[in-house]
Structures are given as C-alpha cells and as structure tokens.
Design brief:
mainly alpha; elongated
Length: 169
C-alpha cells in the first residue's frame, strides 16, 4: 500500500469538497440576496400603496399640494402628515438603495413622487422645516436638495391631465 498516493488522493478529495462547498455557499448567498431584495421591494410597494390609499381617502391632499384649494387647519395637518410620511418612506427607501437592498432603477421609480412634491411651494416649505428640525436625515436632505436643484422645471399636471382626459397645457 502506497501511503503517499493515499495521502495525495485524500488531499485532492479535500480540495474538491472545499470547492463544492464554496460553490454551494455562493449559490445560497445569491438566492438569499435575491430573496431579501424581493422582500424589501414587496414591503416598499405595500407601504406605497398604503400612502396612495390614504390619498384616496383624502383627495384634498393632492389638491392642496397643487395649491388649488384652501383647507381647514385639520385638513392641513392631514396634508402635512401625509407629506411627512412620504418624506420618511423615501428616506427609508434611499437607505435601502444606499445599502444595495434595491437597485438604482427601483430607487428612481420611487423617487418620482418625492420630486413632484418638492416642486410645490408647500412641499418645499415642509421639506425645509422638517430638514431644519432634524426630522429627515441631514445626508438624505442634502442629496435630495442637490437633486432637486439639478431638476429642470416641470409642469405639475392635474389629475385630468395625468389621466389623459384633457390635453396638458
């Protein structure tokens, strides 16, 4: 019996076991990453839908944000609360983006409503005040401020224009 040959075979088998184990772990890690990303996106969609449902319950949120109607103090609190919820949700999504839990394309789609709000006078005012009070993380506020400063002016469309019921002016 050649002990050197047996030892060499054992080393080769050991190396193969290590390589197979590393490959298995890489596959498992990739599958886990995809599952985490899917879970994060599902949570984001669920939160976003809840925000939209609140807007359906209180349509004056959009009307006031567009500056087309005077509201009572109670309604203004509802609008401000809705906007703060939007700010905080987008801040959370931004953190998810920065940590790699969501990709750039997903982040960009969730950024669209925040851009629209930050183009309104009310949205900008609440954003500045919330940022100054520390309600929004300073780094997120700075990045969004820079982002908004680079945005070209855009017309905010009415619901009828968005739905194609009337031509945009």
């Amino acid at each position: 019996m050649n002990w050197e040959a047996i030892g060499a075979m054992a080393q080769i088998i050991g190396v193969l076991v290590v390589v197979i184990t590393v490959m298995y772990l890489a596959i498992q890690t990739r599958q886990n990453t995809l599952a985490v990303q899917a879970s994060v996106r599902h949570g984001m969609l669920s939160e976003d839908c809840q925000l939209l449902y609140r807007q359906m319950d209180f349509p004056f949120v959009s009307v006031q944000a567009l500056g087309r109607r005077e509201l009572s103090d109670d309604q203004l609190i509802q609008v401000a609360s809705w906007l703060l919820a939007l700010f905080r949700m987008r801040e959370s999504y931004w953190l998810q983006y920065r940590t790699g839990s969501i990709d750039a394309a997903t982040w960009e789609t969730y950024l669209v409503p925040l851009r629209g709000v930050l183009l309104t006078e009310m949205g900008r005012s609440l954003w500045r005040n919330a940022s100054a009070m520390g309600v929004i993380t300073a780094s997120f506020a700075e990045e969004m401020d820079q982002h908004v400063a680079r945005m070209p002016p855009t017309k905010i469309m009415t619901a009828r224009e968005l739905l194609g019921l009337v031509a945009a002016e």
